[in-house]
Write a structure and sequence with these properties.
It is a single chain. The protein is mainly β. The chain has a domain of about 130 residues. Helix content is about 5%, strand content about 25%. It has one helix and twelve strands. It has a four-stranded antiparallel β-sheet, with no helix packed on it. A four-stranded antiparallel β-sheet has the order 5-6-7-8, with no helix packed on it.
Length: about 250
Amino acid sequence: MDRKFQKQPICLADDGYGPNGAQHAPSSYRVPAELVPGDAFIDRILPMPVANGLRSDTWGGPNVKPRNVENGLEDPAWSYWCMSVHRAAEDIYHMFATRWPESDKRGHNAWPESRVVHATSTSPAGPFTVKQEVGPGHNVMCYRAKDRTYVLYVIGSAYTSESMDRPWTKEDLKYDIRGMPKVPMSNHSFTSREDGSVLMVSRGGHIWISEDGLKPFRKITSQSLYPRIPGAFEDPVVWRDQVQAVNAASHA
């Protein structure tokens, strides 16, 4: 694989209206010439940078120390879960995460009562600082709708706002669930498409599309896209990046 692509972010989502190329249906997809057969996707995942060294004088088990305490979002008072990061135009990185008190005797089983928080950083690696609490929710995922509305998906509902820094309004997201197997409608992943529509991958491995990210999501798959191998799958991730878009456009 051409290592020059490692300098470009591949896992952080922007507003969904960046340098995106043409959309292609699976039947018209062409493998980018720059990708060398035999290389693995994992080769494009770089280690988290360490700005100020590793520390042992912090919380955590001995199997994770010494460690970097300045990446991501952490606070000994809270258990954090399911984070979603968006880069704003002014190069401020907005993280949405869920949390519950670390002191809760139920431990991880306290997650059904978790709450969504909004944190920011000037670096994609962090550290992030919590700026506001949005409201109850779990498995948060942020995307931007066609009309530029920010949407925070959480299990069973969503929050919307015209700006990252304004109050959030609780909303319902509608899905066409006809013909769906009896699996939880949760743990979704979203990405904005060039025409303003939004693609969603559900926990069960089905693909859904909303024409604007707010109207009901329409299922376009007849069966799960997960490989038919033993095991239970969860937390799918889907995104677009400029590497994919530039190469796809050159092979249209």
